[in-house]
Amino acid sequence: MNRPLLEVRNLQTHFLTSMGAIRAVDDVSFSLQRGEVLGLVGESGSGKTITGYSILGVVDEPGRIVGGEIVLRDTEDGEVVLNHLGEKQLRRLRGNRIAMIMQDPMMSLNPSLRIGTQLVETVLAHRQASRSEAERRAVDVMRRVGIPDPEQRMQAFPHEFSGGMRQRVAIAIALINEPDLIIADEPTTALDVTTQVQILSEVQKLARETGTAWIWITHDLAVVAGLAQHIAVMYAGKVVEFGATEDLLDHPRHPYTRGLIASIPGEGELAADRRLHQIPGNTPSLLNLPEGCAFRTRCDRAGAQCDIQPMLETSSAGDRALRCWHPLEGQSP
Amino acid sequence: MTEMIIRRLLQSVVTLLVLSFITFAGIYLIGNPMEVLADESATAAQIQAATERLGLDQPLWVQYWHYMERLFAGDFGRSYVTSLPVSTMILQRLPATLEMTVISLLISVGIGLPLGVVAGVFPKSRWSRGGSVLSVLGFSLPNFWFGLMLLLCLAVWFPILPAIGRGQTVEVNGVAWSFLTRDGLAHLAMPALTLAIGNMALMFRLAKSGMQEVMLLDYIKLARIKGLPSRRIVVVHALRNVMIPIITIIGLEIGGLIAGSIITETVFAWPGIGKLLIDSINMLDRPVVVAYMLIFTFTFVLINLIVDICYIVLDPRTREALQG
Amino acid sequence: MTSTPLARPTMRFSERPLGRFWREYSQSHAAVFGLVMTLILIAVAFLAPLIAPQDPYDLMQVDFMDSELPPGAIGGAGQTYVLGTDANGRDMLSALLFGLRASFMVALSSLGIALVFGTLMGLVSAYAGRWVDSLIMRIVDIQMSFPTILVAMMLMVTFGRGIDKTIFALAVVQWAYFARNVRASALVERSREYVLAAQLAQVPTFRILWRHILPNCLPPLMVIASIQLASAVSIEASLSFLGLGMPVTQPSLGMLISNGFGYLLGGKYWISVAPGIALGLTVFSLSLMSDRLRDMFNPRLKR
């Protein structure tokens, strides 16, 4: 097996506020091969987006990466630790080798700049290209993401686009410099269902074609089930389970993962036959997390041992990881 | 869009008419101008005759009508005090006010805006916080107060700038300007700065709060994620969106500057139209006061109109909405 | 993970105990300074007749021989003039305290009138709707688009100087801010379910306004009032400086500055600088306070 493109090791990103440190990301680890899609799944508030921002080094004050390493490798096996880089070197990587698609396409494009400008500047920020070259590239990438009539649409402002079209523009911006890694932060949740399906299938195609690796952030396990090769499940700032998609879906070992799977409406089943499973309780506030396992207050398997924080244990084969004292039955890690 | 502009135009005309009537009624008819005009030895019959000659015995709306009739012929009447045509007096004083106002606008925008932008990008820094506190001072204190303090510091304690008057002027096409000579500029410095401080504070605050809010928006985050240089993020992505409201306010503040010039000119004995207004008020020279007020109202309504039209025409969103 | 991990729980202001309010307010040291200074200045202003060394407008107490003495000078009767004397031999400290009193009195009275009238008009506007609403709002728009100082000046020119007229002019230029904000808050509250429920229960309109709508307009009113107090002091000072405001017999800070202005260039700076600094301190303190209140009630800055 090749060495992974991206390795996140024990990442900790905390927000140091007057009310105390908010541990938005607390001990997150996963790795990702070139050309692979990784699903990062969790409820809102579980630290998914901040993990994405941490990789790019764009966490806003008072947030700060306080621990761990984010390692990015290039093809020649040279590696950089992203969170040790200075702003200047990081800037050269952002939008160039690592891109990101933000959640809300209505908010992430600048309302007063033409679409063309917003694409072209991304090229010009990273390579010595002429304006016309950059424009050609922009038209090309817009066509690839399925925007009709790209030459004309370059001149348009974001408000002239529908939500789905804007998200295609955002995807085009991410793709334009042919990055090694794209972090997609729930890029389809703000869209209606038909557009969602359309964009998802196009992204699937792009992922196959380009050899770009994707981190697909979502709260919806169903979305990544057909998209990702690996899935990392996050809860309250921590990765609680990691594994190959099919293995993880068929044999969930963390009670939280099982809860997530059970809450997906099953295919071909009559709605009346099967009641959707609900995980009891709410996501805890990151400000006053309980000691020990954060899920224990909602967990039916919780015991006395759960007052102590379990560690993320990686299986001997290295393809499965779990953070639980009382895992569900399955092959032992 | 045309319909919107026409509606806005009509609105301005109506506003102008209503305001001119109120101004006229308020200033022209309260009190008896004869007390100023007639000297103390005048008989009742003489006063009666003069009143009739000036039409002061007519009903209010008739007087207003006559005044407006003459106004449209370019006749603002004559001063009670100097007997000169009011239009001549105002035109003579206008350049002084104009140069002071324009220079003060340049100072306030040229200094306040960039400082505000920097403060808005780094809102947590010590300089930014200090600037905000200082801007409260500049924003809320009356401008004669700054005039007083500047005079005290730069003319009394460290006499480096001349205190009053316009200094040496140069005539260009028969109009005298101070800003073209070194001495004139020295005289202009304090009044223009005094007038600028309030606006400078306003620009600082607007730019700061605008930038502070914009910098938190998603599209700025995306600009960072795209790896754009921070200069481009601030100038092209953030500032552009902050500038639209600021330009509107700069336009609207011109009225405030003219009003502020009245006080500043009084402090520095700067012979502009603001000083003329105060002198005329003190001498109960009503035709000058009415003329000033009407001109001011007209200018002000006009500026508001232009700003609104610019807004309609320039903003891509309203433009699109109107076309579509 | 949502993008606002730090969003604080939002609560209506009226539900917050005073302690919370103070804790948030006092996060700004400048604002605390403003509040303390304001309280001191108001106390000093209203105690002026008790603490001033002399009554500056009682001719019996003023010695013309002591005119234009610098700060710290000893007068003919052996008294020390801490801030010097003016052209008529008045003790500047006493004149300043009485001037401060006059300034505060005028500003607070005009603020009270503007607050009551503006609130009333805002409620009427929001509740009557239709042409009453558009007429009132049109007047508000036009008036707010004009520089306040100019409107106030013209009113003073028209009606002549005097305490009552100054208060009137200041109230006229201020009411519009209250009216507009009360109308806006009232319109929001009006469409809330509890108001609709009260209407269905046939609670009288007046009672709905008084018990339900008005209390919810209070936070913005408080912010506007604090801003307007600073602005009233400042405008009154400008008017009096121009000789259009307070009468000669009751000089405010602005007029004291104006009185001393003629002596400034002659080097006798204290006559106008002492009231100048008092004015500066007053307006600055009030503004620091209002600035903090405005920030606290601006939800967009809450992050």
What's the short version?
The complex is a heterotrimer of chains A (333), B (324) and C (303). With 324 residues, chain B is mainly alpha-helical.
CATH class of the domain at 103-270 and 289-301 in chain C: Mainly Alpha
Shape of chain C: elongated
| Number of strand elements of chain C | 2
- Residues in helix, % of chain B: over 70%
What name goes with the CATH superfamily of the domain at 103-270 and 289-301 in chain C? MetI-like
CATH third-level topology of the domain at 103-270 and 289-301 in chain C? MetI-like fold
- Average pLDDT confidence of chain C is 81
Give me the strand/helix succession of chain B.
HHHHHHHEEHHHHHH
**End-to-end distance of chain B:** 10 Å
**Overall strand count of chain B:** 2
Described by strand count, sense and barrel closure, the largest sheet of chain C is: 2 strands, antiparallel
Give, in spatial order, the strands making up the sheet with the most strands of chain B. 1-2
**Regions with little confidence, pLDDT below 50 for 5+ residues of chain B:** none
Report the structural category of chain B.
mainly alpha
Which band does the percent of strand residues of chain C land in?
under 5%
Briefly note the CATH topology name of the domain at 90-283 in chain B: MetI-like fold
Strands ordered across the widest β-sheet of chain C = 1-2
CATH class descriptor name of the domain at 90-283 in chain B:
Mainly Alpha
| Morphology of chain B | globular
